[in-house]
Design brief:
This protein has helices spanning about 5-30, 55-70, 80-115, 125-145, 165-180, 185-200, 240-250, 250-270, 300-315, 330-340, 345, 360-365; strands at about 155, 160, 220-225, 230-235, 285-290, 320-325, 350-355, 395-400, 405-410, 415-425, 430-440, 445-455, 460-465, 470-480, 485-495. By secondary structure, the chain is of the alpha+beta class. Helix 2 packs across helix 5 (about 165-180) and helix 5 (about 165-180) crosses helix 6 (about 185-200).
Length: about 500
């Protein structure tokens, strides 16, 4: 067994012991409670105690390989052109020096031969020859002893050198292992390529740059899902604007900037993650294809393919689910085109929803108060009525076919508060009205919103009412269709100052 193999074996043994200790510690401490998940929304645990034996072994082996590579300064590719140039210069200098040495030695040998013939010996010549060779050997050995090891190698702000003991190291390494089905060598090569790409592309400083500022409406972060994952919305419909399309994909240079903008957005998203066991370590992606130009636009097709490859190769397991909404007829053709370039694991995270099922699909993963109003939820920009989800929890009721139900909001005090409410009905197509019913039987009922038929494309309704006397606001929903309806609502009382 070589010295290198011995070091790796020792490192593996030490890592196994550390894993066993960590597992015991985790079992002693209670894990944070998790919100109930959708049945199709299960994400792997990053706790060591939850890993299978072969997964633990793979993690230990990857950490040992990584540590050996970092300590050996082999994690990044060497600067080949520079080394060749340096070697050439050194070779030329050595050649000149060798020629001078050989000439000097030859002259000295000649003189010695002459002196020997005259009865003299040549021991002094041997000593001089040793003195000439010795300094050269000493000089060659010097760089080895002065080598500096840089252990400050990190990814997404997480130290990768196992010796630093960061709790995020295992989380990051598990992403690469899962992306390569726990094949250690493949995961290690993937990690090395990612680090090399980041170094060559200067990704660590990309957040400091202003890239494609016109694309702020094309993709953005907005809220969290039921598991606490940040939600990223990709709005492909903005590229239906020909001017913006040409400005973004008009030539190869512009497409290159688009890719850097997409990488920058991913880096911004990662800053919202908690790369630790039990934390939100991945994103939820919502891809809105409404009014998207589609695959008929070659430049968009090529750029999308490049972006998918770039993100899949360098940001493994950072997307929990990829939800495609408002799917047009051409989506399936595009999916068939991209499918060969996607891993089976990536494809298993895809969820598809046609326009009529958008809100219903999003509600499986995102609470109503975190879904933007344009997708049937209650979240509004700069909302002054509901400041947070705690201000008004969302309730739900099922409205059977051909039935009528009411929602009552109490107004116990007069002249001191304003009632505000949100209502959303999946599929709508109902009769709807709002009225205020006073507590005093002698007072008149006030019509807040007269009865009207609401179509299937209606968005969430928000309304307010301030009464002059105690009573209640009554919302009446009449389902005249043959299908049951899902009703979401919330309300709040705002104190008047």
């Amino acid at each position: 067994m070589t010295v290198g193999e011995t070091q790796v074996a020792v490192a593996v043994e030490e890592q196994v012991k550390e894993c066993e200790k960590a597992v015991v510690a985790e079992e002693a401490e209670p894990k944070p409670a998790k919100v109930e998940k959708s049945s199709s929304y299960k994400e792997e645990s990053n706790y060591l105690s939850d890993l299978k034996e072969f997964e633990k072994k793979a993690l230990v082996e990857l950490k040992a390989k990584l540590e050996e590579a970092i300590l050996g300064n082999n994690i990044f590719k060497k600067d080949e052109p520079k080394k060749v140039e340096e070697k050439t210069e050194e070779a030329e200098a050595a050649a000149v020096k060798t020629e001078e040495t050989q000439a000097a030695v030859k002259t000295e040998e000649t003189e010695a031969a002459v002196k020997t013939e005259e009865g003299e010996t040549a021991p002094e010549l041997a000593e001089e020859k040793e003195q000439v060779v010795a300094p050269v050997c000493k000089e060659e050995a010097k760089p080895e002893s002065s080598r500096v090891v840089d252990t400050d190698v990190s990814l997404w702000g997480v130290p990768l050198f196992p010796g630093k003991g960061s709790e995020g190291t295992d989380v990051v390494l598990l992403k690469f292992l899962r992306a390569r089905e726990f094949k250690v060598n493949e995961a290690f090569e993937m990690l090395k390529k990612t680090l090399q790409w980041r170094k060559e592309s200067k990704i660590d400083s990309i957040l400091e740059k202003e890239i494609c500022s016109d694309l702020s409406s094309a993709a953005y972060l907005n809220g969290v899902d039921r598991e606490g994952h940040p939600v990223c919305y990709n709005i492909f419909g903005v590229f239906d604007n020909e001017e913006l399309y040409q400005k973004t994909f008009g030539n190869e240079e512009k497409r290159g900037q688009f890719l850097r903008w997409r990488v920058q957005l991913m880096e911004k998203s990662i800053q919202k993650l908690e790369l630790r066991p039990g934390g939100a370590t991945s994103l939820l992606q919502i891809n809105d294809l409404k009014n998207s130009p589609g695959p008929i636009k070659k430049e968009l097709r090529v750029a999308t393919k490049q972006a998918v490859g770039l993100l899949q190769d360098n940001y493994p397991e950072l997307v929990a689910k990829n939800i495609f909404i408002n799917i047009p007829f051409w989506y399936y053709a595009l999916n068939a085109l991209l499918s060969p370039f996607l891993t089976q694991r990536t494809k298993s995270k895809f969820v598809v929803a046609r326009p009529a099922k958008v809100t219903e699909t999003l509600l499986k993963y995102i609470p109503a108060e975190e879904i933007p109003i344009q997708y049937g939820g209650f979240k509004r920009e700069d909302d002054t009525e509901f400041f947070s989800s705690e201000d008004g929890s969302v309730s739900e009721l099922t409205l059977k076919a051909g039935s009528t139900q009411t929602i009552e909001i109490e107004a116990a005090e007069a002249d001191s508060s304003t009632l505000v409410w949100d209502v959303s009905i999946l599929g709508w197509e109902v009769n709807y009205k709002e009225e205020f019913v006073p507590s005093d039987e002698g007072s008149y009922t006030i019509i807040v919103q007269k009865k009207k038929k609401i179509g299937a494309n209606e968005g969430p309704i928000r309304n307010t009412f301030r009464s002059n006397e105690p009573g209640k606001v009554v919302l009446t929903i009449e389902n005249t269709s043959s299908k049951k309806k899902r009703v979401l609502y919330r309300h709040k009382t705002n104190k008047c100052i």
